[in-house]
Structure formats: structure tokens, C-alpha cells
Amino acid sequence: MAAERTAYDRPRTCAVSAALDRVDLHALHSTLERIAIPLINSFCSDGSADLVGQYAFPLAFEVVNAMLGCPPEISQKAAVATTAIFDGVDAEEGNRLFGAAVLELVQFKRAEPGDDVTTRLLNHRAGLDELEMIHQVIALYGVGMGPLQSLIINTLRLILTDERFGAKVRGGALSTRDALDEVLFEDPPLPNASVTYPRQPILIDGIWLPAHQPVVISLAGCNSDPEMGAGNHAGNRAHLAWGAGPHACPAKSTAYLIVQDAIDQLLDAVPEVRLAIPAEELTWRPGPLHRTLADLPVTFPASPPLLIP
């Protein structure tokens, strides 16, 4: 059963990996700058902001839209749908509207292909049908809108609350990548999202894991294993937050670039940003699989809008 599922999923996994491998990272840098600066301009003169709702979430959403080649009219429909889902106003209707928006995107790209992830999925030799395309695009939206924005926020939280990183990152002694890898070790956005199904009963530390039953692997637990060392991870990128082997995250390089650029753009614009409340009062969103803040309120000296290149 597990072997059959793996064989069935392999062409789809290859299609997604191939589509993401061809993302132009140099062009993506310019795209992110084009998206980030207007978002920063929307709050930089106020002297305060919620970096979840006003920055990380819309930035991640727009970057994923750009990668998928989603035109503004369809993007707007997807935005309305995802707002309903995340706000819980009418999650069931929001989910239906989101699926309809993704279907419209797939049909649009069949008619008007471009240099984007959706078109590459359509053209892949795996020959994904319409339903498979919808599932793959929804999965890409889900990963981009969830873990990607969470990684931005968790890294900003580390920089704003941990004296090992705050001044050193802003002063250049440590890079944003150093803070990002620390988060991926200690506070990954998907600490418990890896699930496997043993093909036969397996004995681990005196406990039998039954065959064909889900086993949740905690990546955060693997990273914090005392036998692997703890504390200072500077320069060490051996964490398992991206997964490993054939099922490792295919968007690793893309995600690194997006998160680093998003944080660098923000810190360059408002270098004196500070938490608006004590760190212990920050609220984490409930859920067993993800690790992310509900909001990240900050203050900073008000500054004039940035010039848009």
C-alpha cells in the first residue's frame, strides 16, 4: 500500500521539483523588492505595524502569485477566499472559492502559457490532468502562504528578542542567513508536519510502531536531540527543517532567498524596529503541526516612504 502510494506520487513530485528548479532566482530578487517596498511604505510613516498582517502574509502571498504567474484579477479572488479561510468567517465557502480561483488560474495558463511554475507543471511530461493540477497549485499556495510567512516572522522574532542575533545581524557581524538557520534548528515553522507509514511493524526504543499507520516525525525534536549537540549552531546548517532524501522540500533555495530578502528589505528600511510588547506576551497560533505567531506588533521611528525602483 505504501509502496503503491509512493510510486503514484513520484511523477507529481518530479513535476513540482522540475517546475521550481527553473525559477530564476535573480529575477525573483527583483520581484520581491517590487512587492516588499510598497508594503513597507504602507506603514513606515506610522511608526508601528503588525508584521504578520501588514508584511509577511501579503508578501508571501504576492510572491507565490508571481511565481505561479497568477494575474491580478484571479489573485484578488484567491485573496478574498484565503481571508475567509484564515479569519474563519466562512471557511467552507472560502475553501470553495479558493479552489475555483485555482481552477481559473490553471485554465488561464492553458490558454496563455508563460514563464512560470503553473505553465511548467502543465507542460511536464508527467501529464497532470486538471484535478491533479489544482491539487498541486493549491499545495504550492499552502506552503507559500503558511510556512514561508511563518519562517519570515519566526526569524524576525529571533532578531528582535535574542541579543545573540539582534545587534549582530543589524550591525553585520552575523548575516540574516545565520539567524534563519538558527530558527530552522530551534523553531522551524513546521516542526511536526512529517508523516510516514511503516511498511511493516518496527521496534524503536522498546515500542512497536504498527504497519501502515501514520507516524509523526518531529523535526524540531530531531534538531534538538542532545546527542546532536545544542546551543550554538553558528555556521551549522545540518538541521532537518527542509526534510531529507527524495521527499526533501524542493523549494529550499527559493525559500531561503525569499525569507532573507524579505527580512533585509525590512531591516534596511526600519533598522531601529523594536517589539511593541514584551516578548512573553506574543501570541502563538494554535495547531499541532505549525509554529507561528498570530501577530508581531512592532514600533520604530517613523520614516518617509522608500523610492520604488
Topology record:
Elements: H1 2-21, H2 25-41, E1 48-50, H3 52-68, H4 72-87, H5 91-111, H6 117-123, H7 130-161, H8 166-171, H9 176-186, E2 194-196, E3 202-204, E4 207-209, E5 215-217, H10 219-223, H11 252-269, E6 274-275, E7 297-299
Antiparallel strand pairs: 1-7, 2-5, 3-4, 6-7
Helix pairs in contact: 1-6, 2-3, 2-11, 3-7, 4-5, 5-7, 7-9, 7-11
Summed over residues and divided by their number, the pLDDT gives a mean of: 86
Q: Strand order across the biggest sheet?
A: 1-7-6
Which runs of at least 5 residues are low in confidence (pLDDT < 50)? 1-8
Computed over alpha carbons, the radius of gyration is 20 Å
Sheet bearing the most strands, described?
Answer: 3 strands, antiparallel
Task: Output the CATH class name of the domain at 2-69 and 114-191 and 235-299.
Answer: Mainly Alpha
Count the beta strands: 7
Count of DSSP-assigned helices: 11
Please give the alpha-carbon distance between the first and last residues: 53 Å
Class from helix and strand fractions: mainly alpha
Output the helix-strand order.
Answer: HHEHHHHHHHEEEEHHEE
Secondary structure: helix percent: 55-70%
Beta-sheet strand percentage? 5-15%
CATH arch. level architecture of the domain at 2-69 and 114-191 and 235-299: Orthogonal Bundle
By CATH's scheme, which homologous superfamily of the domain at 2-69 and 114-191 and 235-299 applies?
Cytochrome P450
Global shape:
globular
CATH topology of the domain at 2-69 and 114-191 and 235-299: Cytochrome p450
